[in-house]
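Risk register update: the risk that structure generation would not scale has been downgraded. Supporting records follow, first protein first.
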Amino acid sequence: MRLPKFDYSDPETLDQALDLLDSHRDDAKILAGGTDLLVRMKKGLLKPKVLISLKALNELSYIKKQAGCIKIGARTPLADIISSDMIQNEAKALCQACEKIGAATIQHFRGTIGGNILQDNRCHHYNQSEFFRSGHQACHKAGGKICYAREEADRCNSTCQSDGATALMALGADITLARKGGERTVDLASFYTTDGINPFAMESHELLTEVTIPVTEAQSAYQRLAYRSAIDYPIVCAGVLLKPSSAQKDEIENARIVVGAMGRSPLFLTQASSSLKGKKLNDTNAFKKAADASMNSASAFAVHNVGATLEYRCAMVSQMVFRALEQAAAAVEA
């Protein structure tokens, strides 16, 4: 499979990149590592007229603590996040998620945190070669009017399989979107549209520049299931955060449970999360109930589009959430 023809731009500064985005808008795509973008282009899923490379923008590659938050540049390699003591100690779920993204060579040389957040939603029926798709009626995501993943669906049911986004949502992260002449900050949980065709609440002339994670006394954990641990996208994953009470150190003051790879966006499960408030950190029965509630909530969004049966994936939601909760609780008590 060959890449389609395109013009290539290599800006040297962020301002130059934003100028190019403002000029080309829908005709342009951002090239960071290219691990998702170039594959989609080779399959004929994308045919941008212009690629704007971020290769020279070292100003977008950093990990630092500022004003009670961890700030990560969008172009930061996954390997830098994995090796960061700050991330290991204060945002463990993100470190665990990045360890599972691709192989070591991708983590070191290609994969970036911004690229992982912005990877397009996937579907086993859609992410095929152009030749394969030519023999089938176009689905919603390809401009048609059917969904192969869910019969009689009136919309695209492609799935968000981003490890990083699931972990970051559990950590309560914000992202910064820059454009020519300004920028805005968005809660990651509000960034997803739940539209499988256009999954991000982001304009074509905007660029993801930074991820911000609040630093608290909480502990986090991430669990995922995939056919191959170092190559495949997750078929189900879960990120959790547990904050102990300042008055009762063995009690949970706040919890966040996020399930990924089950819907059009990572699913922040409010009811399951709130059920843990006031529970003891060693209350495995409460964890099991929250995990089962997570399974019930996430099951409503699951479709046949990631190469695994619905029954198996739904059952594994409970397992991934329970294991993540146990791991985060153990870290709080350590």
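Supporting record for the second protein:
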Amino acid sequence: MRRFADIENLSELVVDALGAGRRTVAVDRLRGGTKKGVYRVRLDGPRTESVIVYSWAEDENFWPATRAEDPADPFAPASGMDPFLAAQRTLHSLGVRVPQVLLADDSRRRYPADVAVVEDVTGGTLEALFESDPERASGALGDLAEMLGVMHRSQARNYGRVDLLERGEGVSGIPCERRALDRALEDLKEAAGRDGSIAAAEAALRDRLGELAERVGPRTEYGLVHGELGPDHVLVDADGRPVLIDIEDLMYFDVEWEHVFLRLRFGERYTVLERPGLDPRRLDLYMLAMRLSLVAGPLRLLDGDFPDRAFMRSVADHNARQALALLPPV
């Protein structure tokens, strides 16, 4: 039985973040997280009405244990306070809006896990605003396009997660596109073991990945990418500005990887985020790699006790169909 945080064990943490004189009146665990717990803590008294608490406790991580990962692999699972704080610092330094950090604590004295107390951006997600307030969402989407331009123009000579590069770790001599191909081949093998339609086309998909990878030329500069930027990972603040969340995977990588994910998640609205000069060969390789990742990842998650099982199954099934559609006609 997983144990999650409650009002009793978060109250002291929030008092330390905001100061005495504040009383916690309610704690709501927010849905959707797979690697960390996200809690809205409601307060009485003046000023701040609520804050968000992130908890990186083991019980909050629904991903089954895997073998040891290569730290230089940008696709290795990223979770914890260090990746979060490094990403927050990097984005803030560029003027990219992220929630303000009020307290970060890895001492385990206040709470038996790494935790952070951050600003509660209460305007909702961009995804919800598309339905409830299209005009406000349109303005935020335009601002998001500018924000992404700033990130993608921030370049580095090495690819990798920002927390590792900050520490001088994670630098790899393996070409960026080769990393993506290797991960796609692993995802293909894993997906084929769990999905019959992928298993039936495993050889064709493997060959297609190889063909697409052979077309990609070398590159020596990489842009800053969120890595999993859908409209559910963008909040909108009181001024209508987009605020990026779930930033632990922030890394320097091919910006085409980001644009493939943006295209999948924003659909027809992607035209606002599109930019000229993207490498079509990388886009082709990364689109198939991304589809296979979105089959293998959700099915791997279902090996454990993740609660929203029907949704994850639907994600895997949809992306399996889309991956097969990328095969050339016979």
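The radius of gyration is 20 Å. On this basis the risk owner (M.S.) recommends closing the item.
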